[in-house]
Write a structure and sequence with these properties.
The structure is a homodimer of 172-residue chains. The first copy, chain A, has six helices and two strands, in the order ααααββαα. Chain A is mainly α and 172 residues long. The structure holds a DNA duplex (23 and 23 nucleotides).
DNA sequence: TATTGTTATACTCTATAACTATA
DNA sequence: TATAGTTATAGAGTATAACAATA
């Protein structure tokens, strides 16, 4: 029988892999992520980092008014939890494919503003409902209270991951 | 303000990236996984796939009696959710470092049995408490009921990921 | 001097297919 | 023919450092 507590393992001398949180996170994330990546790439020719940029820009562009300036690579990196290297590459590819438009920032010429082109906005609008449908499909059968608990745990893990590492390396 | 429901996004035309489940899973898993990977590699010189093999063998070796035969690469691949390619490579590296011992199976000479050497068992015994401590550190502050709910959701997502992809590609 | 962004390099993990040796 | 395992190759993502342009 399988131990059912992902966060409370059983005994001290052994470790049941399928109750080990990092393992389970890896497996489930890989399954979800890969399914979605296939959707992006097969239907829209978009990679995951590219999607994150589209999502950030689509969201901000709609929220910002008509003279919304766009987002810099730095903004996108923070918003999408990506390194600046990945953002630079993905953005360059999207600009080349005319999905993004890049405009120089006269006030600080190191950076530039990116926003969705009309084509990019079209792709964004096509992907969003599919992404929602995907998420709904995944969530179907999960109770509201479980969903909320899950959300709390994810939020907690996000904060805890950094400090857990620090704590463990300390007393090594 | 941040939308707090990871599994129930807000409106149809936009998608808030930080409420999108695959994104959140990716980010949290990456944080957790990378923290742990650093621990394995810096202190024990073990990669994540190698750790999965150690964990599977350590667990089974302890459960099985003295004439437990070992596990085949195929067993390890299934148990650790890895492709046979990864298992083959990781196992070869571990055998070379004398952490695993490989014994031919006379009954079916295509496969062979792997088990932990004394050295391997030592490493396993050193890692397990650290892994438990890591998990406990992560879980500290999570209520028992949230942990159970989280477990149910992870389990659900694992099953749902495959079918969600199928459902979405169907009506494309 | 510090920061934005780009390029180069290397490494890990993944995916696929081709191949072997057995069965 | 099918299976266990290995090897080769290519891809995506990450991490790091070096670099150019600008502040």
């Amino acid at each position: 029988m399988v131990n059912s507590h992902a966060l409370r393992p059983s005994d001290g001398a052994t470790l049941q892999l399928d109750t080990f949180l990092p393992y389970r996170l890896n497996v489930v994330t890989q399954a979800v992520s890969q399914a979605l990546a296939r959707l992006y790439s097969e239907e829209f020719g978009i990679s995951v980092p590219e999607w994150r940029i589209l999502a950030a820009l689509g969201e901000a562009q709609r929220a910002g008014g008509p003279d919304w300036p766009g987002m810099t690579a730095r903004d996108l990196a923070r918003h999408g939890s990506m390194g600046k290297v990945m953002v630079s590459r993905a953005a360059a590819a999207l600009v080349q494919r005319k999905i993004l438009v890049r405009k120089a920032n006269a006030a600080d010429r190191r950076e530039s503003f990116l926003h969705l082109s009309r084509k990019g906005a079209g792709i964004y609008m096509a992907i969003v409902p599919r992404a929602h449908a995907f998420q709904e499909q995944l969530a179907r059968g999960i109770s509201a209270s479980d969903a909320q608990a899950f959300d709390r745990v994810v939020r907690h893990l996000m904060k805890a991951a950094g400090s857990a590492e620090a704590a463990l390396l300390e007393d090594a």
